[in-house]
Predict the 3D structure of the following.
Amino acid sequence: MQIRIKQILPLLQVLVAVALLVWTDRWERALMRIQDMPGTPPSFALLMAINAPLAIPRALVFRHLPGWWDDITLVLSIALFWYWVSLNLESWRLGRRVLMPSWTPLRLFGDTIAVGIGLTWAWALWAGRELPPVLSFSDWLWFVPCLGLPILWSGTLILLFGRDFVQCLLRHKATSSNVR
């Protein structure tokens, strides 16, 4: 029995997400004893950096989900997201293509959404976010992944899905000109 990447990657990411969510909950409970509004826990910032493409859709729905439903929805979306990432890794390894629907309008829509999320992250990191000053070595351990991972996700989404968008348009133009 061979363990495949599409089975192990989502499972590992869900375990990491649950561990970071538990750490976030304990951090907030400990700080609520001494502070009224402690801010975003470093563990949650790391979780959102690891799963940066999910942060934007999550920002639209988390206020509307009561209690634990927010965490449950986040963990399920992380599992689905990393399953999709693992399918794309296998597809890229086999044919140098991202895994998208074959119907051209839906493919272009999906590519546009992925590039849009990448551009939103690039814009947020470039213009809309004030970076905290790094004061000590221990701060670097949080600062580098929390800034580096969204930059990596942004570049990956823009380059891979932008490439797929252009190839899909060029392929569609070539087939429509051959038909005439």
Notes: DSSP finds six helices and no strands in the chain.
